[in-house]
Every structure is written in C-alpha cells, then in structure tokens.
Design goal:
The complex is a heterodimer of chains A (157) and B (373). With 157 residues, chain A is an alpha+beta fold. Chain A contains 3 helices and 5 strands; from the N terminus they run H-H-E-H-E-E-E-E. By secondary structure, chain B is of the alpha+beta class. Classes of the chains: A alpha+beta (157), B alpha+beta (373). At the A-B interface, helix 2 of A face helix 2, helix 5 and helix 6 of B.
C-alpha cells in the first residue's frame, strides 16, 4: 500500500523528469568540448593518418625513396605509381616519377608498412587532410608536390 | 444513383508508403515499403542495396593484407571488431599464433569500440524517439574514445589498426593512463544517460511492449547480439566460442526477459558496463613482450577454407575465406549481423504505429554498410 502511495506521489510530482532536468542543468556549467573546425584547427595526435607524403633525408637532403615499388604493390586502391631509375652516383635506384592519386587514396597507411628505408620511411602519413579542389585532375600529385611543406590547399580560410 | 452512398464506400484502404531511403531515422539508406491501415502498420518490406559496393567480389582481387581497410568499411561504427574478426580468420587459415600482448591490446580496443558503438546507438536511438539531449552527451563521451583510438592507430573511424600476426605499433607512451582515466570518468556519464532515460515516463511509453519477439522466434530468424539477448537467449560468441584471449576475463552476458525495445536498451546499457570490466582486467594484466609474430610480406596460405566469427556490438560477425593457395582469397564471404537482424523488422513492425517503426529500426541497431556490403 505504501508502495502504491509512494508511486502515485512520484508520478504526480514528475520526480523522474526532474531528475533528468537536473542532469541537463548540471551540464550547462560544463566547459565546451566542441572545436569550431574551420576557425580552430583540431588538435591532431602524433600518429594521425592524413595524406601520404614523401620524405627527404633530413641531413643530406637526398631522396629517401629507393624505387622498390613495395608501396605500389601494397596499395589496395592502386593509387600510387612509381617509375624507378638508377641513381646518378650509380648506387641503387631512386624514383624518377612518383605519383599519388588522392582521389582514390583511402588513408589506410598500408603503403608505409613495407617501406624498406630505415629508420625513417620514405613514404609517411602526414597530418594534412584538407584536399578540397575544384578539379579532379588536381588530385594527381606529382613528385615535387609530395614533399613536406608543399602547398596542397588552393583555398584560404 | 442516389445521393446518399452506402457507408461501405467510406472504408479505409490499405495504403503503401515509402519510408526512406533518405529518411533521417533509417540510419543510412534503408528503404521500407510500409503497408499502413490508418496509422497502424500491417506490412513492412525492407528494400536494401542502396549502399552495395560489391565488397566480397572486390576482395577476390586483393591480397590478404589489403582486405583489412575494406573490412573497416563494412560496419563502420565498430571497425575494430571487423578488423579483429578478419585478422582472426586469416591467422586461423595460416596457423599464425599472435603474441600475447597484441591479443590483449586487441581486446582492449575492441571493447572500447563496443562502448563507442553502443554510445552512438544510444544517442541516435534516443534521438529518433525524441530525446535530443542524450545524443549530445553520448557523442561527447564517444569523442573521448575516438581520441584514444586516434592516438593508437591514427584514425577515428576506419581504423585499420591491426595487422596479420599482431599489431603495427605498440601502444603510445601514456596511453594506458589515459585509458584508465576514461574508465574512471565514464561510469558517471552512463549514470547521466540512465537518469535521463531509464525511468523517464515518455521513454517507457515509447519502448515498453514495442517490438516484442520471443526467444525461439529470434533464434529462428537468426538474430544475434543484444537484439537476441534482449529476448532472454544468452548467446554470446565471446562465451560460446571464445576467441582471442576472452577466456581469461570475467564478464557476464546480460539478458532481457520480455524481448521488447526497453529490454534491448537495458541489455546494451549493461553490456557497456561489462566492457568496462573487461578493459579494466585487460589493463591490469597487460603483459610485456613482442607485438607482432613473424609473417611474410606476401602471405600465401595453403589451400583450405576457414570460418571465424567474433562478437561485434551488433552480433555475430563472421568471416568465411576460401583459399586456393595463391596470395589472394578465392572466395570471401562476410556474415553481417545487421543483415540478419534486419530480417526481424517486418515481424516486429506489424501492429505498431508508424512512429514506432523508427524506434524499431533503432532497437535492431543496423548499420547499412554492413547490411549491403
């Protein structure tokens, strides 16, 4: 009997709705967790996988790529095309042409996995992800645009 | 012809109405052909295929490691489970044993992903029914998990986190600490959702007694996961056919009683708590050691076939691979839990109002990427 009375009082006083409202009220005073993206840049973690880019040896400035075609073979989307050539000093090979088609790239990072250059891999996943363009042909990135620092954005904020 | 027509001509007709494929609460591109008598649904026919990408055929032209990013895109809400299932199948096929540490890290990731997936389900399900606030809170907590994933594997949705034979990279320094912090913060957040929903009279009215399905019927249709457990059948692949290192962890398999939408909601809420328990145990007993077994770059399994299934947040996710001895699978088949669960929808809908159909799509927790493949 007391249970029923208590239940009746609860339903009349809208207790459970008031509990819910107290939750929303408490949340009014919490700090924001959203990032206003185009105005603020999001805080990317070190391992973030953006577009794959090429790297030069930071000490000598030489190309790290040895033209082994392993990344081309590992790519599930067929978006990498490498044409190897002999290095001018005669030792080993280098890439004469290295084209990535970002239209097809799925940012999986499988191309970085088999890269044989140590300790830095020649191809790596950069933190750039803003690729919007007005034309499809612009997604074919030739070799000189693949190095770090090369401009990929063609619009401004 | 008389002016006063007989009353029989004023009878209502059964009307066919299309719901979707662009309906916001069908969670993707699901089209439902509803037969309605007034406001009551008398028939329902799901029409699928709007997101069909031919994944299974596509896999036949890719080598084994290349398929992993494709499994990310099946059930994109819980890509870690898909990765684990595919890796398990390939490792079974090739007879690779995974280092212990890699197994533990995989379990932690999958269970975190289960929480993230259930949070997304809870948010969208509540949003469909009309509780907007929960959606925002759920996404806030899901963001914390996604940050952990981004730190570990570099992606927030299509993780591609594991590799055949183990992991690509170890956990980053300080990751376990941040994970523990999440475990500490999260239970209070879940209490907030429960405060908002569990006893809310509107929520009860919209979910109790809606879409009742008995245990036998659910098994006949092929439901798995929380949708099955809501009907009282305690089938969980993690317990029934333990894979990875799940045997070492203590956790319960929550089941419902009535098999209605409310019970399925309670089951999923409890599952999140059980996932927290598993993660805690895994973090406490995380062994040191190597993270990747030696695997050749160009994997060529022997002739044979293998089926491996894992418990994804939606149910039993199976991978069937036929190998003909080359570096590409001869046949690849994915058993998607969402596809099987969707079959229950016509039966659940009948007799309910049109407004309940959105609640029923939500309660089955389908992901159209997994339905259509």
């Amino acid at each position: 009997m007391t249970n029923r009375i208590w239940g009746f009082i609860k339903s009349v006083l809208l207790i459970e709705l008031l509990i819910g409202l107290s939750v929303t009220l408490r949340n009014q005073f919490r700090p924001h967790t959203t990032v206003e993206y185009p105005r603020e840049t999001p805080n990317l973690k070190p391992r973030f996988r953006g577009i794959p880019r090429l790297r030069k040896n930071p000490e000598t400035g030489e190309d790290l790529c040895v033209g082994c075609l392993l990344c081309e073979k590992a790519c599930p989307d067929d978006c990498i095309k490498v044409v190897p050539e002999k290095r001018p000093d005669g030792k080993g090979k280098q890439a004469a042409k290295f084209i990535i088609n970002y239209e097809r790239c799925c940012f999986c990072g499988l191309c970085v996995d088999p890269c044989p250059t140590k300790p830095l891999t020649a191809i790596y996943m950069s933190h750039d992800f803003e690729l919007a363009s007005e034309s499809r042909t612009k997604f074919y990135y030739p070799m000189n645009n693949l190095y770090e620092g090369a401009q990929i954005k063609e619009y401004s904020r | 012809m008389t002016v006063n027509e007989p009353a029989s001509t004023l009878d209502t007709d059964i009307m066919e109405v299309n719901m979707g494929p662009q309906h916001p609460s069908t969670h993707g591109v699901l089209r439902l052909k509803l037969k309605i008598d007034g406001e009551t649904v008398v028939g329902c026919e799901p029409i699928i295929g709007y997101l069909h990408r031919g994944t299974e055929k596509l896999c036949e032209s890719l080598s084994y490691p290349m398929v992993e990013p494709i499994t990310d895109r099946l059930d994109y809400v819980c890509a870690m489970s898909e990765n684990l299932g595919y890796m398990g199948a390939v490792e079974k096929l090739c007879g690779i044993s995974v280092p212990e540490r890699a197994d533990f890290v995989r379990v932690i990731m999958v269970e975190l992903n289960r929480i993230a997936s259930h949070l997304l389900w809870l948010g969208t399900h509540a949003l469909d029914i009309g509780a907007m606030t929960v959606f925002l809170y759920c996404f806030r907590e899901r963001e914390m998990i996604l940050d952990l994933f981004e730190e570990f594997c570099g992606a927030r949705l299509t993780y591609n986190a594991f590799r055949i034979g183990g992991l690509l990279e170890d956990l980053p320094p300080g990751w376990t600490g941040r994970c523990r912090q999440f475990l500490k913060v999260y239970p209070a957040c879940q209490k907030e959702y429960e405060d908002l929903l569990t006893k809310n009279r509107i929520w009860l009215k919209r979910t109790k007694g809606i879409g009742v399905i008995s245990g036998e019927e659910a098994v006949e249709i092929g439901l798995t996961g929380p949708s099955l457990r809501g009907s009282g059948v305690g089938y969980d692949v993690r317990k029934a056919h333990p894979y990875s290192v799940y045997k070492r962890f203590e956790f319960d398999v929550p089941t419902g009683e009535n098999g209605d939408t409310y019970d399925r909601y309670l089951v999923r809420m409890e599952e999140m708590r059980q996932s927290l328990r598993i993660i805690e145990q895994a973090l406490d007993t995380l062994p040191e050691g190597p993270i990747r077994a030696k695997v050749p770059n160009w994997l060529k399994p022997l002739k044979g076939e293998v089926y491996h299934s894992v418990e994804s947040p939606r149910g039993e996710q199976g991978f069937y691979i036929v190998s003909d001895g080359t570096d590409k699978p001869y046949r690849m088949r994915f058993r998607g839990p969402s596809f099987a669960n969707l079959q229950a929808l016509p039966q659940l809908c009948v007799g309910h109002l049109v407004a309940d159909v959105v609640a029923l799509i939500g309660t089955l927790d389908i992901v159209l990427g997994d339905v259509d493949r």
